[in-house]
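TASK: fixed-backbone design
INPUT:
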């Protein structure tokens, strides 16, 4: 027998060229191949008759070949084979393009099983390139439930099916990891049967049972992994903080905290005196004041003789945190340092020396904080801003620079409770659901291109009133195939035609870091009236004077992303607006965008986005730290998720340290999952 770790090249017909195609799908081993699950199925088990065939509806039918197939060479690269078949209800003309084997295999007077879709034109009905098999053959393409796989260029579904079938014939599937008691309680198939049935189901009911098993398994593994992380954390003992007096800090604030901010600070203070490392998520909507929670935590860590580190996903956001927190904390005698990739080598050396010597109390930076050359003197608190942009491994790597430091992570991306429980299952959660006093909701409108003149007039009105505007485009450069506005071309058009007298700035992700920093800093200083940008401004751009956000081709964005973009305005005292433009006619798309106009509650928008688009907006490819699910759909499989979480919690309580084969295999799978998702074990 072969092993799951053997390369796919041991399979017949899989040479170097085919192996490259499999690699494009992240399939390198037999285990990868067996775990490459179908995205759907075609039920080809039901046979119909020729008179019941419908145009453009694929179907299986049995028919006899009524003449000898004839192949004509039409031109170079094009051969045409025609044959007529019939059953007791009628006749049908079949046409095959560039399939000479049809001439060789279809025998006059013999019955076959065909599968294809009827097509109609002015000369009658026919069928093009149907697949066929002899009646006595083993069902491969007909008379079965056929799995349809995710594919890549050059790799056909038939080739994938053939490879998977070979792998299952020579290799045992992944071992059982679910306890028998769990399988019985929730009606879950055993692993061996499920892995065969997902690829070779006897019928659709078995395919659904196999899918349920694998969905449950994915959720169970991830939930158990988070539970193990939580148990490991809870087992650590550290000295509790003894100085928790925030009186001077609160007096220094230029505003009153909201009730939600106070509750989050109370949660954090309670964590700091437990004697175990804090692991808390502060989740709040755009502009809700999460940074003040981080500032309070850093203040207490420093009062207790520790250093604090705040990691931001972009240099723009890191610099904003540095400047805003310096104004607040420097008068209290707290020494701040900024560490980003764009500093000169000399500046980096000097900053790192101050961090290592303990001359810097609060260090704010980007990924530069987790580099091996950054050494802390006495790190006691790690703050990760915009947590969804970092993986568990990154925050763990920063935490490893201290002795079990407290961890506070912040997210302005509203995440539905269901996803938050899954994504942040190893963290305690505080939610800030109030906006600071004086903040007005951003009024939002959805309009078509017919409103273009009115939009331009509205932009000019805001500029004349002394305010600034953002215009967000979904693309950087023009692309005729995609047919959507690009930041570069649109900024040029506006400057040369509509707003010749205004100052137009440009910001997009393909610019150098220094150029982006300069453009954003210039706009924040009021040196431009209109900023045309891509979603690079989605996170951490704070310009209180910006009162208008125009989002072009808004249907190209998810609701949660639109909400983040809208959050770039309404940060000052003036009334602010968001105008979304869209040429979309699809009713579902229009309904989705209109949801943005009805509410400014990020959590309601996130729930709507989850229902309409699934979890992609929350766990996209740019967002690290979330293992991808091969079968599970977080927006569709919520009950299975709840069952798996309950089962994994019970397993942890009853048999978390068990040495049964299932428990050992489960712990191995957990390690593989987080290794694959993070690039390193935590």
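OUTPUT:
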């Amino acid at each position: 027998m072969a092993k799951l770790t053997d390369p796919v090249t041991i399979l017949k017909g899989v040479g170097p060229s085919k192996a490259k195609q499999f690699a494009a799908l992240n399939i390198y081993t037999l285990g990868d191949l067996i775990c490459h699950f179908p995205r759907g199925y075609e039920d080809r088990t039901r046979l119909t008759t020729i008179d019941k065939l419908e145009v453009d509806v694929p179907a299986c039918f049995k028919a006899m070949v009524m003449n000898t197939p004839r192949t004509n060479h039409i031109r170079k690269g094009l051969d045409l084979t025609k044959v007529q078949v019939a059953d007791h209800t009628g006749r049908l003309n079949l046409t095959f393009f560039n399939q000479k084997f049809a001439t060789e295999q279809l025998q006059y007077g013999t019955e076959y099983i065909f599968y294809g879709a009827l097509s109609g034109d002015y000369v009658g009905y026919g069928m093009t390139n149907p697949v066929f098999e002899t009646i006595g053959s083993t069902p491969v393409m007909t008379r079965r439930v056929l799995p349809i796989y995710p594919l890549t260029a050059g790799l056909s579904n038939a080739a994938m099916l053939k490879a998977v079938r070979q792998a299952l014939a020579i290799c045992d599937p992944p071992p059982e990891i679910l306890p028998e008691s769990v399988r019985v309680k929730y009606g879950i198939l055993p692993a061996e049967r499920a892995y065969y049935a997902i690829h070779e189901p006897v019928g659709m009911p078995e395919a659904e049972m196999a899918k349920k098993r694998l969905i449950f398994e994915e959720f169970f593994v991830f939930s158990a992994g988070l539970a193990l992380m939580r148990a490991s954390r809870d087992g650590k003992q550290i000295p509790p903080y003894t100085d928790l007096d925030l009186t001077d800090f609160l007096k220094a604030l230029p505003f009153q905290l909201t009730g939600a901010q106070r509750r989050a600070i109370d949660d954090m203070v309670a964590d700091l005196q437990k004697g175990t490392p804090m692991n808390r998520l502060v989740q709040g909507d755009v502009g809700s004041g999460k940074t003040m929670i981080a500032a309070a935590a850093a203040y207490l860590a420093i009062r207790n003789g520790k250093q604090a580190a705040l990691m931001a996903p972009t240099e723009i956001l890191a610099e904003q945190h540095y400047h805003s927190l310096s104004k607040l904390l420097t008068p209290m005698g707290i020494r701040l340092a900024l560490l980003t990739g764009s500093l000169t080598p000399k500046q980096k050396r000097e900053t790192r020396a101050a961090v290592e010597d303990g001359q810097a109390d609060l260090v704010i930076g980007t990924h530069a904080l987790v580099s091996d050359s950054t050494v802390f003197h006495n790190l006691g608190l790690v703050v990760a801003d915009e947590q969804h942009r970092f993986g568990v491994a990154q925050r763990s790597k920063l935490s490893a620079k201290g002795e079990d430091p407290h961890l506070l992570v912040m997210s302005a991306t509203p995440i539905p409770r269901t996803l938050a429980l899954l994504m942040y299952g190893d963290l305690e959660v505080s939610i800030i659901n109030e906006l600071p006093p004086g903040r007005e909701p951003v009024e939002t409108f959805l309009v078509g291109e017919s409103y273009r003149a009115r939009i331009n007039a509205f932009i000019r009105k805001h500029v004349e009133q002394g305010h600034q505007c953002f215009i967000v485009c979904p693309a950087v450069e023009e692309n005729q195939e995609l047919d959507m506005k690009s930041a570069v071309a649109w900024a040029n058009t506006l400057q040369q035609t509509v707003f010749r007298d205004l100052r137009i700035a440009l910001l997009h992700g393909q610019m150098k870091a220094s150029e982006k920093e300069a453009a954003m800093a210039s706009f924040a200083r009021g040196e431009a009236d209109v900023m045309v940008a891509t979603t690079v401004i989605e996170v951490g751009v704070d310009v209180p004077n910006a009162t208008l956000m125009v989002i072009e081709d808004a249907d190209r964005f998810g609701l949660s992303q639109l909400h983040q973009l809208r959050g770039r305005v309404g940060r000052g005292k003036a009334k602010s607006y968001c105008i979304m433009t869209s040429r979309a006619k699809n009713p579902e798309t229009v309904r989705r965008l209109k949801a943005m106009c009805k509410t400014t509650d990020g959590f309601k928008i996130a729930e709507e986005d989850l229902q309409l688009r699934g979890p992609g907006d929350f766990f996209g490819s740019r967002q690290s730290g979330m293992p991808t699910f091969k079968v599970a759909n977080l927006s569709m499989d919520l009950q299975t998720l709840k069952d798996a979480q309950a089962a994994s919690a019970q397993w942890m309580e009853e048999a978390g340290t068990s040495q049964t084969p299932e428990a050992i295999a489960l712990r191995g799978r957990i390690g593989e999952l987080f290794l694959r998702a993070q690039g390193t074990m935590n």
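COMMENT: Residues 443-599 form a domain with the Rossmann fold fold (CATH 3.40.50.300).
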